[in-house]
Amino acid sequence: MSRRHPGFFPRTRFRFSLGLRIFSRGVHSRPAEGCRFLPLLGLMILGLACERAGNSVIDVNGDVPLLTTVVVSPSSINTDSINVGPSRQPEDVLHLKVAIFADASVPAGAQQIASVQFSVLQEGSTTPLATGELADDGTAPDEAKGDGTYSGWASFAIKRVEIGTYQVEVTAQAANGFRSSTFLASLEIVRGNHPPLLSDLQAPDTVKLANEDRLLYLHVRASDPDGLSDVQRVAFNSYRPDGTPSNSNPFQLYDDGDASHGDNAPGDGIYSLSIVLPSTSQTGTYRFEFQAFDRSNEGSNVIVHPITVTQ
Fold this sequence. Notes:
disordered N terminus, single chain, mainly beta, Immunoglobulin-like, five-stranded mixed sheet, 3 domains
């Protein structure tokens, strides 16, 4: 009989046979806690080895891709800065577009990145509003080809009132099939309307009729932090000396440069109106209340101006 190495084969055979012997005697006697799991562990190791060997499409060589930075631009969108009609309604459908930039690499070189994908999801939802793939090809919004920054556009539609934090999820996949962890970036959708402001009212304090019709010119300046184009209308209501409102309320002022309205220049933010006060008008002090409204129908400050009418 050949002489075997005393340090390896006999010891391995002893341990393996010990495991089998303990397993076979498990019905008659309780083995030590540390030993009775040895056969199960051996079967698990054998099973894993077989699974890896049998799956030839898995490349166990290579590195996992890494996402280091994801930027969404703009990172915040104010839905009240977007107009789709003469006035803003909560149910308006807005079409939004943002740029996504992701830095992706693997230790072996950025040329091994196979794809970088993104999804845009509303908070609390698992259904993407937009999906797509980012590219590093120098085509806008990507700035430079092959620099490891992958870029693309995400377009989606929401209602004006659907504000909150939206999640942009980005993952990278290497040429060997390995995928990176998911990188999350936030997109804030807000409603941040600002009311308009009225100032610099020009109107007479007193009017003497003397049995004649009188022409009055009224001018007021309107502005808006969201831009002058956000001012939808400027108007005033008038009240007689007895406190009753005029039958023609409200009266609209214009910034159209039309001389018949008493306006001097279009689009300068000065709203005007010329009105005729009949000779038979009730005498006393009239109250005029001026106010502007924006496309969200939010009102400005109210300028109250009294005009005293005499004969």
